[in-house]
Amino acid sequence: MSGSALGVERKQRNPALRNRLLDFLEGSIETKQEGHIVLRTGGIGWAIAVPQETAQTKKIHENLKLFLHLSVGDHAFNLYGFATTAERTLFRQLLGVGGIGPMSALALLSSLGFSGVSQAIVHEDLDAICSAKGIGKKTAERILVDLRNALTFPTDDSAPPSTPRDDLIKVLDGLGFSPNEARASAEAARRRLGQDAPLEDLLKNALHEKTL
Fold first, then answer.
1. CB 187 within 8 Å of CB 163
2. How many independent structural domains does the chain possess?
3. Are both 33 and 95 inside the same structural domain?
């Protein structure tokens, strides 16, 4: 097969199919440095880029499970690892924004954390998004425009009235929580804050508990 044909074949590959090959890895942390760890599993050391919080809070030889995203470039294969599936989903949503590559998405998560990025998008906080390394104003504006519909609170006046619990589950679902995780987190937040707590307070509490 010619080089040009190989190039066409590479472009036609579906990233979603590619990422089904490696969903997660679980093993012992062999080494770590800023933004990277080496996870030892099955006699293999996997070099994985991770959000700064993960690199800072985890210890050498500690057991760790990471949900993976595989990025294939022209000259390298890179693995990105996340503590939760929700964090990985948000990372992938950021990759869908024009001008955002894996390193920029990771820098944003490292700067603000999962909860901080989610709340910045929900509240359209341009300054918070711009505070991340490598994220300029135009890119931050694209992030807010492209992702706010996935994360904002439901506002359809024609729909039947919904409860804060129902709305919270919808928002958490948009953040990549599984249906069971979304329901459990919503119920737990309501138990902590009370049945009549505002939706924004419930969301903040649920996201905070998720990142602990």
1. no
2. 3
3. no
* Confidence (pTM): 0.67
- What is the helix (H) or strand (E) element at residue 44, kind and residue range? strand 44-49
C-beta of residue 82 within 8 angstroms of C-beta of residue 67: yes
Of 26, 55, 82, the domain-final residue = 82
Give the pair of three-digit tokens for residue 57: 């809070």
- Rounded CA-CA distance 134/141 in Å is 14
Give the count of beta carbons closer than 10 Å to the beta carbon of residue 102.
Answer: 17
Instruction: Provide the domain limits for residue 145.
Output: 85-151
Walking along the chain (212 residues) 10 residues at a time, the average pLDDT comes out as 39 51 88 92 92 91 93 82 89 91 94 88 90 91 86 46 71 76 86 80 77 56
Structure-derived torsion over alpha carbons of residues 110, 59, 67, 22, reported in degrees to the nearest 10:
120
User: What residues contact residue 147 under an 8 Å CB cut-off, 6+ apart?
Assistant: 93, 94, 97, 121
| Distance separating alpha carbons of residues 129 and 29, to the nearest angstrom | 30
Q: Are 60 and 32 contacting, i.e. CB atoms less than 8 angstroms apart?
A: yes
CATH of the domain at 170: 1.10.8
Residue 146 lies in a domain: yes
